[in-house]
Amino acid sequence: MPLERVQLGKPLPVDIWSPSGRLLLRRQQILQSEAHREMLRSHQACMTETDAQAWQKSLERQMRAFYNEGADMLLIAQLPLPWVIEEEDFLSGHELNGGWMDVQDVLRGLLYQGELAVCPLPRLQALEDRALALLTQDPDEGLFVLFQALPELQLGYCASHALLTGVVAVLTADKLALPLAARFTLLRAALVMNMGMARLQDTLTLQKTSPTPAQRQDINQHAGLSVSMLSALGVKDSSLLDLVRWHHTPDLLTDDPNALMLVRLLHLADTLTAKMAPRRVRQAMLPLDATKILVKNSSPDTTLLRHAMAAALGFYPPGSYVLLATGETAVVIARGHKANSPHVASIINASGMPVSAYGYRNTSQAAQAVKAAVAAHTVQVKVNLDKVQRLRQLHGV
Question: Taking the model in full, what pTM does it have?
Answer without folding.
Answer: 0.79
